UniProtKB/TrEMBL annotation:
Entry keyword set: Methyltransferase, mRNA capping, mRNA processing, Nucleus, RNA-binding, S-adenosyl-L-methionine, Transferase
Subcellular location(s) per record: Nucleus
Region (Disordered): 1-40
Gene: ABD1
Protein name: mRNA cap guanine-N(7) methyltransferase
CDD domains reported for this sequence: AdoMet_MTases (cd02440)
Site feature: mRNA cap binding: K83, K89, R114, H157, E242, Y307
Domain MRNA cap 0 methyltransferase: 49-315
Basic and acidic residues: compositionally biased ranges: 19-40
Length: 315
């Protein structure tokens, strides 16, 4: 990946012209259909998953990130809310107001139902099916609504299909985020992925183990945008198209939109630090990441290393 251009004094409009924007939204449709097709199973059924502890670990890590940055009475925008799996985390954070958006309409229906059946929920919530990488958030959220926090868990990388989509994503993150507000999220670590691919034999286009795989069409060059690969995670993601996020490019674009990087650590690093804190250590056991029956397998631990967590603060 080559270094991005230096940012200008002002962020360019996210609707800037781009030839790729006139192409059919094939990936958009494929991603929406993939997540619409995945059933929302109950807690007991989830325990039967072959990657139950990895899923628990990912949830624990999101709890750490939310616990670090969310404050009581916060107003939160969750882009890529999915089926609402983080609603309980937000409830425990005692936020005041919540808006969840997702490209998958069925997931939004399930998130809305999950919220409806929650007990003693401390916050008001609204849910919208929309593509936050192709249309402005003001289409569904009042421009007067200001957020203290924006969360984007395991989904930002879809915006790196094109620069235009990445800019729309950042426009939606920042346009209604108050000064001092925080943008948190989790993404695949492009540096680690490419480094691991390059460590393989010259003709190999895939990395992974028995529970995950990342497959490329080529391995010679990786553009800042549109560096496509297919991701498979056992019992979770079925060979879905995704895009590498060149983090220096994300950081420089974010600066154009008034965001300053304040946190950027791989999942393994987050674990090493947070597990030393009593509350988060106890949470590892309550969330079944660790129990008397066992802990993450070596292959699950490797899969966890694919990701990093970040936080930006709006200047």
């Amino acid at each position: 990946m080559s270094e991005p251009h230096a940012p200008g004094k002002r962020a360019r409009s996210p609707t800037a012209d781009s030839a790729s924007e006139h192409q059919p939204k094939k990936v958009h449709t494929e991603v929406a259909e993939h997540y619409n097709a995945r059933p929302d199973v109950g807690v007991e059924k989830r325990k039967e998953s072959t990657i139950f502890r990895l899923k628990s670990f990912n949830n624990w890590l999101k709890s750490v990130l939310i616990g670090r940055y969310a404050r009581p009475r916060d107003r939160v925008l969750d882009v890529g809310v999915g089926k609402g799996g983080d609603l309980l985390k937000w409830s425990k954070a005692r936020i005041q107001f919540f808006i969840g958006c997702d490209i998958a309409s069925k997931s939004i229906e399930q998130a809305r139902e999950r919220y409806r059946t929650m007990r003693n929920v401390p916050f008001e919530a609204h849910f919208h099916a929309m593509d936050c990488y192709s249309e402005p958030i003001s289409n569904v959220v009042s421009p007067e609504q200001v957020f203290d926090m924006v969360s984007m868990q395991f989904c930002l990388h879809y915006s790196f299909e094109t620069e235009t989509k990445a800019r729309m994503m950042l426009h939606n993150v920042t346009s209604q985020l108050k000064p001092g507000g925080v943008f948190i999220g989790t993404i695949p670590d492009a540096y680690w992925i490419v480094k691991k691919l390059k460590s393989e034999s010259d003709d190999k286009l895939q990395i992974g183990n028995s529970i995950y795989s990342i497959r490329f069409e080529r391995r010679d060059t990786f553009e800042k945008f549109g560096a496509k690969y297919w991701f498979h995670l056992e019992d979770a993601i079925d060979d879905c198209p995704e895009y590498l996020v060149h983090f220096p490019t994300l950081q420089k674009l974010a600066e154009e939109y008034g965001l300053e990087l304040v946190y950027n650590k791989k999942f393994h690093q987050v674990y090493e630090e947070a597990s030393q804190e009593l509350d988060f250590n106890q949470l590892l056991y309550r969330m079944n990441v660790i129990s008397e029956e066992g802990h993450l397998s070596a292959e699950e631990w490797e899969a966890a290393n694919v990701y990093l967590a970040f936080a930006f603060r709006k200047k």
